[in-house]
Amino acid sequence: MNEQHTGNRAQQAEDRLHSFGRHVLAAVVLLVCAWLLLHLLFHVVIVIATIAAVVVAIVGAVWAVRVLF
C-alpha cells in the first residue's frame, strides 16, 4: 500500500510539472502573439498616416496652385 501511495505522489508531482510547463508555454505563445499583433497594428497605423499625409499634401498643392494662378 505504501508503494502505491508513493507512486501516486510521484505521478501527481509529474502532472503538476507538466501543467506548469504547459502554462509557461501558453504564456510565451501569448506574448509572441501580442508582440506580432502590436507590430502589425503599428505598421497599419503608419501606412494610414502616410496615405493621409500624401492626400493632404496633394490637396494642399492643388489649393495653392488654384490660389496663385
Q: Give the strand content.
A: under 5%
N-end to C-end Cα span: 101 Å
Largest sheet: none
Low-confidence spans: none
DSSP E strands, number: 0
> pLDDT average, as an integer?
89
Order of helices and strands: H
Taken from the alpha-carbon principal axes, the silhouette is rod-shaped
Radius of gyration: 30 Å
Tally of helical segments:
1
The amount of helix comes to: over 70%
User: What structural class results from the helix and strand content?
Assistant: mainly alpha
Comma- or semicolon-separated keywords:
mainly alpha, 69 residues
What does this structure look like?
This protein has 69 residues and is mainly alpha-helical. Helix content is 97%, strand content 0%. It contains 1 helix and no strands. It has one helix spanning 2-68. 0% of the residues are buried. The mean pLDDT is 89.
